[in-house]
Amino acid sequence: MGSRNTSFHDGALARVLLAPFKLGFALTLGLAGLLLVAWAVDWVFVAHVWPGRVEGLRALLTEELAAGTAMAARQGGSVSAVTAPANGLYGLVFEATGLHRMGQRFAEGAPMSIPDTVVRSTWIARQEAIEVAMIGTQLLGLRAGVLIRFFPLLTLLYAVGAAEGLSQRAIRRAQAARESASLYHRAKYGQVVVLALGGSALLVWPAPVAWGLCAGVGAALVGVLAAGQWAYYKKHV
User: How far apart are the C-alpha atoms of 88 and 85, rounded to whole Å?
Assistant: First the structure.
């Protein structure tokens, strides 16, 4: 019996200690997957939709930067609050790996060794795809910075929805109304779906985003789902 208790506490302690690493690993995989999806979407539109190919993607980045800058100015923030995620993500993917410096070295036209010459030929052959990846990475980071600006609105509407739900829960408890665990869990997981899918769609959308409308509707929907979640929260807890 003692060994069973010891193993239980050891397992719980291990889970607590490993939780930050598991979360970091999951977030890293999620970011990598989202980045690959963004590259694929951008490349499809560069190759088949946008006139001017890469120029269409560059124009989209310029338009989103202007929208993010204007939003930050209205909220009393600095431009760096929007551009910092873009610079950070680009630095992580291309500068930390040496790809940015490699491209600069190839562009300088300095004498190179035979391996560098081979790599340079491959780089030039894939130059458009690499440029799409670079611009797409900046676009994804920029949009993440814009999306973060709506976090206070999301928090406010969630708090309002939770307060409304808890009020309805108190009324239901007083009236001895039935509880529904299925509705509680559906509303709870519905918020995860809205945040995950909605946020991902905004980040990779291959066109200018109406941030006020899309983020506002998403935050309002989260508030409604929060109200439903807490209205059916278990009574005995």
Answer: 5
The rounded distance, in Å, linking the Cα atoms of 94 and 229 is 42
Looking at residue 51, what DSSP letter applies? T
Query: Domain range for residue 88?
Result: 19-147
Same-domain status, 190 and 128: no
Which tokens in the block code for residue 96?
A: 């930390």
One domain for residues 27 and 135 = yes
- Count of Cβ atoms closer than 10 Å to residue 233 Cβ: 19
Q: Can you give the pLDDT at residue 124?
A: 84
106 against 84, higher pLDDT: 84
pTM of the model: 0.85
Residue 13 lies in a domain: no
pLDDT at 235: 58
Whether 156 and 212 map to the same domain: the answer is: yes
